[in-house]
Amino acid sequence: MPQAVTGKKIDTLLIIRGLLAIAVVVFHSATMHENTTAFINIPGRTAVWMFFGISGYVIGYGFFTERYQFTKKDLGVFYLNRFLRIYPLFLLLSLLAWITGSLASGQSSLHFKDVLPQLLMFQFNHDYMFSRVFWTLGIEVQFYIIAPLLAAFIMGRFPYKWFLLAGVYFLFVCWVPFAFYLFGQSFDGRNLPANLSHFFIGMLACKLMLEKKLPAINKALLIIIILALLAVTNYLYAHHIDYYWTAGSVTIDFIILLCVLLHKEVSGTTYGSKNYLLRAFSFLGVISYGVYAWHPYFIQYTPQIERKTLILILVSVSAAFLSYQFVEKPVLSLKGKRRKAGFGN
């Protein structure tokens, strides 16, 4: 994925990822205990849906700009790089949680039959014994499998293309209530079909941006609209949950589109080396995966800090920094070395 700053350029979407990771930590700490008001709470699900949208944008960008082409070699590179991005930290934290849980209980919670669903993510409705947030990683990995097909479809040339793409998005949106009424599935869909609309809108937004079909809007106005819509969806989650899973979900897709529009408006903007706040937010985006992945481990195995939100944030960010430096960064450097031999991001 794109780095936080190249030549001190602001990467808005990466900064948003970092802020969303912190929002998830706050939600699992303070919000759970009603320490903040509904309008400013960002539910964990809102952050996850926005993560999915940004992921759709990033993956789409790789194909739409021909960083990856639809060849056997490039697709192999794409899947390898996605594996290097997700699995090292996932496996590290799964191993750590398994050891910690086994020592605490005196017996292993992992059996041979669990390897495929728990470690290789062979699940439909995702549920992981080692971390309550890893269900999102399972969906993310399964999205990677079909992402080239979605990208090829969006890049296709056919009559009334954008009307057709809008129709496909509408079908993805309709799947959740359809699956609820026909199959009895929960609105809290922890599977790929229930979340495809968010990935897809991110890919569509990327394509619209690259084709210069997104309008120019004042950055301050965009931020105000995004925050206002977030406040509305936060309120729906707290007081009208049924509307949150339907209208709220579509609203968040619109927020994803607006975030891409904001990203376009800020693109090319640079900042000085002494702007420590932007540098901190940018690096927070870089380690956002770690912040998101570490915090439930601390909540589960050091429950005394669950209600101490600032401490939970600090230890999660610290652990994410260390795992980025000593696990993620060394592994991700393989992508850079391979890129010189034809491997891409």
UniProtKB/TrEMBL annotation:
Segments crossing the lipid bilayer: 12-30, 42-64, 84-104, 133-155, 162-180, 217-237, 243-264, 276-297, 309-327
GO MF terms, alphabetically ordered: acyltransferase activity
InterPro entries: Acyl_transf_3_dom, Acyltransferase_3
Keywords: Acyltransferase, Membrane, Transferase, Transmembrane, Transmembrane helix
Domain annotation Acyltransferase: ranges: 15-309
Claim: Oxidoreductase is one of the keywords in the record: no
Superkingdom in the source lineage: Bacteria
Signal peptide residues on this chain, from the entry's feature table: none
Name of the protein: Acyltransferase
Organism in which the protein naturally occurs: Sediminibacterium roseum
